[in-house]
């Protein structure tokens, strides 16, 4: 049996007050389920930084390929220094629930996460139910809600209530 390794690293200090506060703010702002999602994103940012450091000695063509991949994701990268300055928030901004919330398709970030996990979101005509899905720039305009009833529930309920009183 092949053992699967973690895709993240736990913090060295378990009870560091400032880190915990920062993580709680990120969890609330981006509607994350738990801190493991933050740690995985940190690991991904660290991977991008390590890759940029390794490419510092490589040819400009290889560097450009790497930069193009990051630009496709939606990160504003022009050079190695931009990759080294990446923050966790930069990647969290590109997650599917965050993009749905920013496009004003739903009222709250938690609602957008719920729609994703309940398979109510289409990206390029395909159902995506992974909240950590990173949306590329090309896919951003093709995000749709599977069920149009999601938006129309509130007005219908308001009309029914208004007719009963009137």
- Gyration radius, in Å: 20 Å
Write down the secondary-structure element order.
HHHHHHHEEEH
Instruction: Report on the biggest sheet.
Output: 3 strands, antiparallel
Helix run count: 8
Shape: globular
**Average pLDDT for all residues:** 89
Helicity level: 55-70%
- Strand runs, count: 3
Strand content: under 5%
Q: How many structural domains in the coordinates?
A: 2
By helix and strand content, what is the structural category? mainly alpha
- Please give the alpha-carbon distance between the first and last residues: 68 Å
Strand order of the largest sheet: 2-1-3
User: Residue ranges: pLDDT <50 for 5 or more in a row?
Assistant: 152-160
In quaternary terms, these chains amount to: single chain
Task: Record the SSE blueprint.
Layout: H1 17-30, H2 35-55, H3 60-73, H4 80-84, H5 88-92, H6 96-102, H7 109-117, E1 121-123, E2 126-127, E3 143-145, H8 149-165
Antiparallel strand pairs: 1-2, 1-3
Short synopsis of the structure:
The chain is 55% helix and 5% strand. The chain contains 8 helices and 3 strands.
